[in-house]
Amino acid sequence: MYGMRAQDNAPATYFRSERMCRVNGELYFCTRENTLEGPYANAEVAAREIQAYIERMQKLSADSSNAAQPSSEGHPQNPTKTAIKPAETAEPSARPQTTR
Questions:
Q1: What one-character-per-residue DSSP string does the chain give?
Q2: Quick check: pTM over 0.70?
Q3: Taking the domains of the chain in order of start, what are their residue ranges?
């Protein structure tokens, strides 16, 4: 299978493989990020968790790409800072006179 993932620098060949594996008799699945997720009670539960994991990763990818792009008005989509007004300075009133 030929393709390029969004985070890859150059095109590469990726081969599909079985995502589920057993480690010490427990069922896990492998991710592209080189993590083992699990253990799971059975293959059906693991298959559901694989799908949920893929959806989470796609959502994170979409959220991070949307956060980097400004909205159509040129403002950030999620403004977190508000304008800070400078503190008003007190006008110098009659200064106490010092005698020398």
A1: -EE--TT-SS-EE------EEEETTEEEEE-TTS-EEEEESSHHHHHHHHHHHHHHHHHHHHHHHHHHS--TTSS-SS------PPPPPPPP-PPPP---
A2: no
A3: 19-68
